[in-house]
Amino acid sequence: MIFSIILSLSMAFAVAGESIKCEKGFLRMSMEGKKIVEESAYCFNEDKNMLYSKGFAMKKLKKIKIHESGSINPGFELCEALKGEAQFVEFKAEGEWYKLDRCLFADKSYIDTGLLYQKTR
After folding, report:
1. Does the pTM of the predicted model rise above 0.90?
2. Range 41-73 burial, b when 16+ CB lie within 10 A, else e
3. Of 17, 52, 82, 99, most Cβ neighbours within 10 A?
4. Mean pLDDT of residues grouped by 10 in the chain (121 residues)?
5. Following DSSP, what letter does each residue of 74-94 receive, concatenated?
6. How far apart are CA 40 and CA 118, in angstroms?
7. In sequence order, what DSSP letters do the residues of the chain get, joined into one string?
């Protein structure tokens, strides 16, 4: 089942001209002033400006409307509306760290807030 989700995600992004790579790697974030590093399986695009946990069910995302408050990142507002927690993270790809933000859900799956915004608008 997870394989079919990943396959369908890869095909969906390939149609959009995106090349997606999934791997096991590391995420790091700051919590209470300390850097935390955790291992995670995630997927990202060639430009490293898209990130989601491997197995993230894109199908669970529905078009939703929110009253945008004019915040700098409306993806954070969408994340909150979906009962997720917005976080700033870095992920390691090809030996380098890349900064993004993500929406972390209770089941520990996540998606970057930019992609979340794109898929729910």
Report:
1. no
2. ebbbbeebebbbbbbbbeeebeeeeeeeeeeee
3. 52
4. 37 57 95 93 96 88 73 85 94 95 95 92 79
5. HHHHHHHHTT-EEEEEEEEET
6. 23
7. -HHHHHHHHHHHHHHTT--EEEEEEEEEEEETTEEEEEEEEEEEETTS--EEETT--GGG-----------S-HHHHHHHHTT-EEEEEEEEETTEEEEEEEEE-TTS-EEEHHHHHHHH-
